Structure formats: structure tokens, C-alpha cells
Fold these 4 entries.
Entry 1:
Amino acid sequence: MTDFHPRVFSGVQPTGNLHLGNYLGAIKNFVALQDSHDCIYCVVDLHAITVWQDPQELKQNIYEVTAAFLAAGVDATKHVVFNQSRVSAHAELGWILNCVSRIGWLNRMTQFKEKAGKNRENASVGLYVYPNLMAADILAYRATHVPVGDDQKQHLELARDIAQKFNHDYLGENAPPFFPLPEPVITGAATRVMSLRDGSRKMSKSEPSEMSRITLTDDADEIAKKIKKAKTDPDPLPGDKEGLQGRPEASNLVGIFAALSDRDVDAVLTEYGGKQFSEFKPALADLAVEVLAPIGAEMSRLLDAPEHLEAFLADGAARADAIASPVLSKVKEMVGFST
Ligand code: AMP
Ligand code: TRP
């Protein structure tokens, strides 16, 4: 696969409540990859509507995710930032890949089961084929690397299976592949940030309790309050990683500390091992405020001038389209469409 141009693609849904998990699991890594790779970062609005979204709120949330990318340090002039629905290749390739992907493959997707819940009959068909559209997002740019949180690993494996089957079905066994097999980039000390109220649940946008997550728009007081109230256990912090076994809340807070300070968990425990949460939590709150408050402030500055965000998105869409269009044309030709 060495002959593919290295290219990064990732997406975030504009569904509100962008949180610390989104930042540490994804957006922070988007920024880190920019120096070494060509990057495309997408606000995936087509994915968002797999669950009902209020149209006015959706529009605002598209701006919010765009602002978060920029405020976190994504360079939208050197790289590409846009919203998915503006580039028709996503939906078009998505359809073709719906015909490559298998029902049996989708039936294994745990995120669908979680999101559809008990009333699966009433979930949208879009929610079911969501991973095929995600594969199309990535493959439309023949992207090679995909930075995501741990919860997207299974979707990435499916994207690789789809790429492989497309290559096989349209080119045969021995021809050089048309699509690369995209690699997940799941890095950092907090690839799965857990709820602050329950260490067994993922921090999520849709959890009813606001105390379960720190959002990117929380101010310093809110950040400090949520960390102070975060669930813990009564023991002091252990001296090494092994000591975090069976302590999900402690593990989560230490992981967050490590990721926010760009250290590994062992380094944090070397400093805080033996200390009580009454000492650790204020240090974590200070660190979180130091990292997140400037991002929140910059987001609100950007959101005050949506016309600028609009201009970034329009420009990004034109540049994304210029990359995806030729790929889609080639796919259409390979499939046998008259174009
Ligand atoms: P979403 O909000 O579902 O569009 O997710 C956007 C990105 O954030 C994806 O790469 C997710 O894997 C990542 N992400 C979402 N929740 C978490 C979490 N609790 N911990 C780490 N990464 C997360
Ligand atoms: N499914 C991802 C999520 O919910 C968002 C997403 C859509 C994505 N398309 C993508 C992520 C392509 C990486 C690459 O988090």
C-alpha cells in the first residue's frame, strides 16, 4: 500500500454538546497530524440526520464543529475543512458502497445496536447503513489514515472490508488495489473518555446529565465544578498503571490528566501516586481550564461571525470536491456506468 499518497480523513457529527472525549479522542489528534500529512476534516451532517435533528439547531451545530476544529488549531487554509452535504461524492459513493457492503457485516455493528436501542424496527434505515457512508467519506479521498476515538474502531474495520471487496470485485485478485485499506489512528492517553458520573459509560453528547461531560463551551467555573463533583473511589491514587485495574473512575481521570498534559499515565502516577483525589482533582481542574478555556473562548469568537465560518466551509467544499470528483468518476467507470 506504499504507493498511495498519505492522506488523513476524519469526521465529527454536528449533533451538539461537543465534549472532552471528542477533543482528546479525535480533534486533538487532527491537529497533531497536520504537520506530517495532508488532512481533510469533515463536519458530517449527512451522518447527523440518521437521528432526527432540528434543522435550525443542525445549522448552528455545523458552525459549532467548524469553530471547534479551527479553535483547536486545525489550519483550514493548508488543509481542508468542510461539511459533508456540500460534496455530492459522499452520497453518491455511499450508494455504490451500499451495494458492496453486506447485511451480515452491518448486523455486527455494535454502535447501531446501542443507538437503535430496543425499538430497532423504528430506527432510520440511514442509521443502519451509516458505516457504509463513513466508508465512502474516507474512500472518496482514498485516505490512508483516519484519526478517531476507540469507539470507531469497528467502523474502520468495516471500511477496510468494503475497500477490499470493492478492489476484489472490480479489479480481481492480483491487480494493484484502487482503494487503500485505511488505517485507524487511535492515539493518546484518552482514546475512550468515560462519563464523569459513571466510569463504565462513555462520555457522550446524548447523555441527559450535563455533569457527565465537560463540553468545549463550558467556562472555567463549570469545568472546575464538574471535575470537583466527578465520581471517584475512596482510595488514594496508585503508584503505577496496574494499580488502576478495577478502578474505572480513577483510571478515567488519570487518563484525562495524561492526555491533557501530553504525558503518559505512568508519568502522571509517578507524580500523583499516593495522593488523595482532594489534591489531584484541583490540579486536574486547573489543567483542564488551562487547555480548554482558550479553545472555548476562540470558539465563541468565531461563532460570533458565522459569515467567516461560512466562507471557510465553502472554500473547503470546493477543494474537497476537486479531490473526490475524479475518484468518483473512476469508480463510476469501473462499475460500468455510462458517464
Ligand atoms: P461523534 O461525536 O460521534 O461524531 O464523534 C467524533 C469523534 O470523537 C470520533 O472520532 C469519536 O470516536 C470521538 N469520540 C466520541 N466520544 C468519545 C469519547 N467518549 N472518548 C474518546 N473519543 C470519543
Ligand atoms: N462515525 C464517526 C463518529 O460518529 C463520524 C464519521 C463519519 C467519521 N464519517 C467519518 C469518522 C469518516 C472518521 C472518518 O464519530
Entry 2:
Amino acid sequence: MDKDLKNKSFGESLEIATEHKQKSFCGKYLFEFIHQKNVNIIDDITPLSKLFRSQLIETGFLISKIDLLEQHDDPDGTIKFVFGLQGGTRIESVRLKDGDRNTLCISTQAGCRMGCKFCATGQLEFQRNLTAAEIVDQVYQAERLCGRIDNLVYMGMGEPLDNFDNVMRSVEILNDKHGRNIGIRHITISTCGLPEEIKQLALSPIRPRLAVSLHAPDDVIRAKIMRVGKKYHITEILESLKKYQGATGKRVTIEYCMIDGVNDQIGHAHSLTRLLRPLKVNVNLIELNPFPGCRYSASSPGQIQQFAKVLSDSGIETVIRFKRGRSIKAACGQLGATWLK
Ligand code: SAH
Ligand code: SF4
């Protein structure tokens, strides 16, 4: 049985209390102290009786914690945190500043199994899935270090839907009104597009916003730059998005990384327009961010603008995403870049 109290939902915390013959409000204290007050020591949850605290400790319960190893600040306000997890694993999270609002980009896996050739994380060896506790703790540690987080994006290291259960558990915990209470409209999951999991997400009781990394106008180009593109056809991904939109009515963001001479031609923009027309989407065009050993280069600003114009002219809301945090290797696709050999 998992003994990490930070992994437990609100309902499970109540059950732990009642199983120990305590009133259920003791479970409420457990959850509140861990997820609102950021307490990491069972004995510091002082409203609980001494007896209950020592019972929890004796039966092996604990509250896990990730450790800050490094902090890097970019002059543009971006901060990268390197965290150490149990067993020596390292991950990175990034705080971005939008005016007076703070966004945190969090990791869900150490490494990634999807093998996108333009992404530094995809070049690392996959180590393991993060637990829900390790995911939520990135938020608590970042808030302790640099203030309140307003928006959360699951766009750090790893493929969130490849760690579905822990990711959804972390969303439930962060969204819970007894805990950190981050509004569901302020949480976005970014995926390389796993159709079965997108359909599962559509049926889930808690549905965050969804961003899909498409990056190609057809299967041939996609399979060339993303290993996962060999497994799923774009039509399967779009079908799953239709189901998601049918169930949620929500607009989906399509992410498209602009790679020089690979997916950035005007003909590609027209093909993309045809693919996306049946859906309610907005498109983020991302200039490719380089990392050591990356075989691709970024499209020119002029090429990106022309591409964006084709999409906008056909009525698709399109935004060109600014590069941020490059000097500290904290931009999209650069996480883990400093660990590449
Ligand atoms: N695995 C998820 C989330 C993490 S990647 C996903 O792929 O969506 C977050 C975003 O960064 C994705 O849109 C991804 O395609 C993009 N990205 C990866 N490498 C990049 C690079 N070198 N330059 C710009 N964006 C990149
Ligand atoms: Fe994994 Fe996303 Fe990077 Fe692809 S882009 S390797 S899915 S983290």
C-alpha cells in the first residue's frame, strides 16, 4: 500500500482518519496541512492527537518532499528550478511571468518515451513516472520560492497522458477546494496526442484544458520528427479531439513547432487549415528552441509570420509564442538539455 500522504485525495485522507478510529475532520486536517500549509512532517500537524500522529508514523505513513537543487533566473523573469526526487532522479519546472500573473510549467515524467527528435527531454533516457505527490510538490515548492502561481501548465518534462492516473490524481488534488484550490480553467495539460487517453480524459469528472502538440500537416512529416507519429495517425488524434469537444464543449489549443524546411511551408499551412477546420481550436506557433545536438533549426521569423497569416486568414485564431528563458535553457523543449551528453 502507498504510504505517502501527499498522494492521497481528500476522500482518501478522510478514510485514513476513520480507519484509525478518528473523526473524519482529522482527515480534513491531514489534507489541509499538506496541501494548503505545505507541511512535510506528520508531527507538525498539531491539531491531530499525539496518539494518531504516532500511529501514522509507526505504520509507515510519511509526507514526501522534493528538494530544490538549483535555481536559474533569466533576465526576462523566467525562473528554472531543478528538483531532486527520491532515488536521485532530477526534474525541472519553469516559472513564467505574464504581467502580474505567474504560470508554472511542471514535469510529469523523468525523461519521456515519445522520442520527439526536436525535444531535449525526448533525447534523455526515460527513467520513471512521477508520483502525484512529486507533481503537486513542484507547485508548493515553487510558491514557497517565488510567490503565488496563477496558472498551471503540464508542459514540462514528459508526456502527461503516458502517466495518466498520477497526472489526473495530481489535478484532482490541486483543484480540491480543501487544498490548493487551483481553478480547473487555470490548468492545462499538453499532450503529444494519445487518442485513447484523450477519450478517457473526455469521460473524466475533472477536465482541465487541453493542448495537443501536432507539429505536422500530415502523417509522413509527423512520423519523421516524432516517434509517436508512427503509432497513431493524425485522423485518430483528431477523432479523439472531436469526442473530447463533444463531451466538454471546450476549445483545444494546437501546438505547432516551426522547424526550418520540415513543416513550415505555405502548402503545409493550407493542409493544416483543412485538417483543423472541423474543430474548435486555436493554434500556437512555437519557434523551435535549439539544444546541443539538435539536428533541426528554427524557421525564420518571416516564414513563421507567413504561415500564421494563412491560418488567421482562414479564421483560425493563431498566436506566435515568444521564446522565453532561453539563456537558462528553460524554453519549450529545452528541459533536460543541460544533462545531454
Ligand atoms: N509531452 C507534452 C508536454 C511537454 S512538451 C507534449 O509534447 O505536448 C511541451 C511543448 O514543447 C510541446 O508542444 C512540445 O512539442 C514543445 N517542444 C518540444 N521541443 C521543442 C523545441 N525544441 N522547441 C520548441 N518547442 C518544443
Ligand atoms: Fe516527450 Fe513532449 Fe518532448 Fe515529445 S515534445 S519528447 S512528447 S516531452
Entry 3:
Amino acid sequence: MLSFQGENILSVNQLDREAIELIFDVAKRMEPYAKKHKRTQVLEGAVLANLFFEPSTRTRVSFGTAFNLLGGLVRETTGMQSSALAKGESLYDTARVISAYADAVAMRHPDAGSVAEFATGSDVPVLNGGDGPNEHPTQALLDLLTIDRELNRFDRSVDGMHIALVGDLKYGRTVHSLSKLLCHYKNIKFSMVAPDGLQMPDYVLDAVSNAGHQIELVSQMEGNLAADIVYQTRIQEERFPSQEEANKYRGGFRISQAIYDAHCKPESVLMHPLPRDSRSDANELDNDLNSNDNLAIFRQVQNGVLIRMALFALTLGVENKVQQYETNVPWFSRKRQS
Ligand code: CP
């Protein structure tokens, strides 16, 4: 019987199709609590250390929200300068200290491999919230859950789909993790749509190719967006050697309603891990798409809470006890209407 109790979630390489399906099954069972139909106190008394050493809105807040929705408490630190890492403390020592206080850790850090290094010193499960340009496993899971749900609306499935990954595929860790997860599915066509210099790293292309999927590497959006899923990424300016280098790419890959009408299919689903760069000279996904029913970006955000709740329930061994600690919600919530 597959179990995640006590495990770290550091990379999608840990996950096979059975593991993905278990996580999705538990995530779906979290819906009544995320929608505030019911509340649960299954993690009452448990403490999450939410350590974000790089900017974040969604991942940080949704990890905290997910833990709170299961009845647990959250302690948070943000930014390198407000932690003892700025005084030269090692990740190992920080982990020994933090895991003396907490029952689980969610962490983001700018360096590839840093979260795994931290986990070597932790006595409690560590969940990777993004380690530099390397991986973002919980984002990949929420993206995959979203793809599955969106395609189901059109009687399609992940197996056999066509996905266009668009933008900064070199530094965009979400597309690295998502591509590797999709290796557990069958017969997918990948259009890797990136400017020269920002194509998908070879190790990801090799994994996708070895899984038997079809890959097209292209450098322009025109003619390459007629996919079931169009997954746009932000130019990861913070990972470029210089701002000058990053500026060369800003605004190169924009999708507006006019571009959608001209180049996508009527049922193409638009996704983005967010944040979308909405500055006027970047404008990655134009605001005029906000009323497009196939813009799934805010449904991705909702699915992120479900996935992170599921991972906490699984790693803390309470996935089958959530209902037992359930109570009614007496207060009004707009979420219940949806
Ligand atoms: N998608 C994502 O990782 O967003 P944040 O940087 O806001 O956490």
C-alpha cells in the first residue's frame, strides 16, 4: 500500500502514476473544506514552518491556507535577510532548529538543490515550494490536476493531448516539473515554443522523448498555439545573468484575445503558473482574456490549495481521518455558492 507518511516532497521524480492518482484522489476529498462547506480540525496542534527565502504570493499563502484548513497552525519567515541564513548559518543547521519547532516545513529558496539539502537536516516532512530554476513539484501537481479537469470539460484526457509550453522554458521551473510528470502519461504532443536561448533544457527534453512523446521545438507562437493546453510562462528575469539580458526577451511572447482568436483552437485552455507579468511592456496574458471561459489561471490557484492540503494530509498520515474531525461551518461564506 502506497504511503507518504513522514516523506519529503522534493521532486516530481519521486512520483509515478499510482502516486499521482493517490494525491489527486485525496485532493478531491479536500474540496468540501476548501469551499467551506465543512471544516476539519484533523491537524489541530500541528505546526507548519513556512519558509520562503524568495518572493512568492500563491505558493506561500496557499501552503499556509492549506495547513490552516486542516486545523493546523502556521509560523512563517520570508526573505533571506530576516533569517539567520544571512549570518552564515547552514541549511542543515537551520533545518535541525526549525524541525525542533515544527511538524512540517514548506520551503522556497533561490538555489537549485537547496530544499533537498535542507531536508537532510530535518526530522519532519519538507515540501519543496520551488528551488531556483530546478523544480516546483507542488505547482506541477496542481497544473496536472487542472489540465485533467479542464480537458474533462471537453471529453478529452491527458493521454493523447497536445500541449504548447510557451515562453521562458529554460529558467521556468514549473514547466520542467510539469513536463517530467507528463512522462507518466501516453502519446502527448509537446510544442516547445520559446525564443532562441530560452528553450527547454536537454535533460527535460530527453525525459519527454524517452517517454515516447512527440516534441516540436519552435521559436514563434504563430502556427504553434492550436493545442488543447496552451501553458504560458513568465520570463524569469531574476534568473538571468543581467537585467540587460532579460530585457531582450520582455514582451516577446504575448497572448491577447486577438492572438487567441487567430492562433488557438476555440477550446484551447490557457494556463500560466502566475504571476503573469502585467507591466505594459511585458503583458504576457492580456487582461482582455479575463472574460475568456478557457482562461484557467484562477482555477489553477484553487486547485493548488487542494493539492497542498492533500500533501499535508498524506505526509502527516491523516488522509483517512479528515472526515472524522469534521464540523459544520456556521458563518456565511461566498465560496459555498460556487
Ligand atoms: N506559481 C507560483 O509559484 O507563484 P508564486 O511565486 O506567487 O508563489
Entry 4:
Amino acid sequence: MTARLRPMLKADLDRVVALERATFPSPWSRGMFVDELTQAHRHWIVADSPWGVVGYAGLMIAATDGHVMNLLVRQDAQGRGLGKALLSDLIESAAEAGVDRLTLEVRRGNAPAIALYREAGFTEAGVRRGYYSDTGEDALVMWTTPLDEESMSAVRHALQERASAALGAFEVGGAAGGAPLQHDLILAIESSCDETAAAVLRDGRELLSSVVASQVDFHRRFGGVVPEIASRKHTEAIVGVVDEALRNAAVTLRDLTAIAVTYGPGLVGALVVGVGYAKGLALATGLPLVGVNHLEGHLFANVLADPSVAPPLVALLVSGGHTSLVHVPAWGQYRTLGSTLDDAAGEAFDKVAKALGLGYPGGPAISLLAETGDASAIPFPRAMLRSDDFAFSLSGLKTAVITYLDKERRAGRDIDVPNVAASFQAAVIDVQVAKAVRAVETCGVETFLLGGGVGANRALREALRAAMGSRGVRMSVPPLDLCTDNAAMIAAAAHFRLWRGDALAPDAEAVPDLRLA
Ligand code: KG4
Ligand code: ZN
């Protein structure tokens, strides 16, 4: 039998609560576990086996103190070292998080548990009389002596050695050596639009591989993404892209902790290819399937680039399908302040590029030409610049450009394409910047993120940086290859979701109009 340690998921809670009830006279409720999984500074793991979850443990971190909240091994799986494996993972994580002392309470009559904790360096520091209200039993309060790094690691190693020796037939992955607070290895798949992408990410920050197969060449001749072609091309590419991501990362499916996939928003025929493939992999490996909102992925591209980026913040999401300002008081809490009423910013770039005969995708072509053009040459409209909401409207601007081009052509005048590109781009940027600044001020945040393909636009980045910088607002922008669609950002968001206990049911479907909430 092999067992492995992995993050506790909300999907495990039926099992966990049943084990808890079968073992402890006053078991934790489901609500208590849900609460733990959504809190920060927690580390909850389960020992998973072919017979399901056979044990679990949790740690709370308060500055330099670590509190072992709970540790349980199913009765018929006891005596094989699983308790040691769970505890050694908690200690490992505690050490990674800078904890130098651990504490716990244990029933005075629970001799095997007390023996386990003593072995791990815990000693009795006191007694809480009648602590357990069910039986009136006393609790022993145990502490480890304050551990410097060296003795901490000695304890960990002693424990790990004995744990692996005692594991016998158990083979425990995930707990071995050097695991940081939230140790995982995630394979993520992205297929919401016209890029088939896969990436492997370790511990939410170490990107081992990121493969993006763009279908741009197939769509270019039609001047935009053709859904039927996207779906077919994803089907052709996905096996190779996933294999390449695993190969480049030098890992196999057996090494992974979870499979993640974008399940919305996007083109339904494109999404289902990634979701179907990810479901198949999850079923075949028994790994949890983590569903990621594509827009949350764009936000997390920033975290991948700079792990210190944290809410509260405001984000501007600008891509081919979206233009929204989002207030993020905490990761996982999203309040859309306003969105485009018609075209998305990327869509406007693409349509104007088409009208100028620049091909698809239009964003990169327009931004390149704009560099040599005069942004004040043509006064295109800045729709809703002065409206005191956070809505955008871009179709009027697109129409104004097309009308301008028609008029000039009819009058037989040559069109100065760089001037049109620069003037159009400036009109887009002026509104984006003004609304982003207002959003940051209204929400009173000091951090601003940019996400989505249009975030690759250099002039937009610079204008936002100047506006935010002059107000003392910290701005984060992902590197160019993390702005446009990729799976690395999906893996980063999945890391967050995995440790919150969020997983998709095996029969989950793509949700083309999934909202950020
Ligand atoms: O995020 P993304 O790769 O896909 C969606 O989720 O939509 O965004 C693609 C969009 C396209 O409309 C493309 O024209 C635009 O991003 N884009 C740009 C630039 N690079 C890509 N727009 C303006 N300037 C750029 N440099
Ligand atoms: Zn996107």
C-alpha cells in the first residue's frame, strides 16, 4: 500500500468528519474544518491511500509559535508510522515558516499520541484540568523547547528517519525533505481561447516549465479567433503540450500533487478540451482536480512574478475578452467595480488593426506602429472618461477610427497608419488610466495590478506606472510572457485554491461565462 501526504481539500471533509466522529468523543464539526481551510497561516494535510483518507493533521502558525491543532490516524492504519509522517510534515512546514516552538494539547489518557509527541521533542509543560468537556479528562499541554535552526533540523531528521523506517509498506511522498509551508507540484492546463498551454509549478512559485502553443497562425487568415478552429487545434495540441511541460520540468505524473485547469470563462468548445483532458488525468492518477477561473489566473500572474504582492489591491484586467476593474480585499474575494459595456480593450485593438490591414492579433502590431506615430494627431473620443463610475465603452472609439479611415480614403488622402495607431492607443490608455486611478483612490488601496493580454502594451504600462507612482501606489505588472494567456498563471492560482481546500468534482463542466467572485 502506498500513502501520500497532500493538502486537505473541502472534498475530503465528508471523510475527515466521519473519521473525527469515529475517533474523538467531542469531534470537530465540519464548519470548524471549513473555517480552518479558509484561514491564513494554516497547514492542513491528509494521508491519502488507495482506501481513501486514513489520517490528517493541521498546524496553525502564530508568529514564531506553531500550534498542532489536530492529528489523527485511522485505527486500522495505526502503528505503521503514518502519525510520524504527518507530524514530521507539520514540523517541516513550521520550520519553513520560521516557527521556533511548537505546542499542542493531548488527552492525558492517549498514551500512543503522547509517546509520538515525546519522540518528536515535545515535553509536558502543564495540565489543563477537565479540559475536555465531554469526559472531563485533563489535557496535557506539551511544548518543544525553543529550537534554533540546527536543533530543529535535527529533530526533523530524527523524526523523518524513524518515520520512514516505521512506514514499512507505506511509501509517503510529499513529506520528504525540504518541503516549504505549502509543498505541492501542480500541472496546470489552459485552453480557454486560442492558446493551448501547460505548466508545472512547484510550491506556488518555482516555475519548472511553461509551454504555450499558439494557434495564432491558424486564426490570422480569418482576422480573429474562429471557435471551431480553436477547439480542433486544442484537441490536436493538448497531448503534446502537456507531455512537453512534464518533460521540460523533468517530472512524471506520479510526482504531482494536483492537476489544475481553467474551467471558465472562455469559448466553450475550447474550454471543454482542457477540462476533459485534465479530468482524465485526475481520474487516471487519483490526484485532485483544481478548477481555476481564467481571470483569477491573470491576477496571479503578478504573484508569480513577485511573491510579495498581496491584497488589499485594485486590478485592471484587460484582455481580448475582458476589460474590468476589480477590487481585491483578500485573495479569493473579488468585487468587480466596473466592466466594458461593449467591446473589450483587446477586441478594440484587434478590430482597429483589422481595419488598418494589420492582421491578427492587433494589439502587438498597433503598439509597435504607435511608437513612431503622433498620439495627438487625431482627436479620437475618450468615451466615459468623465463618467463617475468604473464602466468602459470601446465600440464608439472603434467606430470613430473606422469612420475616420473611410472619410480619409474617400477624400483620396493617404492614411498615416502610425498616427492612427498612436492616436487610437492614446484614447484607450487615457480612459484606462483615469478609471484605474479613480478605483485605487475610491478603494483606498496602495497596490495596483495589471493583468491580461493588453497589459503587454508598453505605453499602457508606462502611463499606469507614472500615474500610480506619483500617488505612491505600488504597481505590479507581470513580464510580457505572463500577460498573455499561459498556464503558469493558472498553476499559481491553483496553488492558492488547493491550499484553501478547493477542488472540482470529477464530473465538473466548463463554465463559459464564469464570473470572478
Ligand atoms: O489575455 P489574452 O492573451 O487572451 C484573452 O484572455 O483574451 O489577451 C489577448 C488580447 C488580444 O486582443 C491582443 O490583441 C491583446 O491581448 N494584446 C495587446 C498587446 N499584446 C496582446 N493589446 C495591446 N498591446 C499589446 N502589446
Ligand atoms: Zn486571458
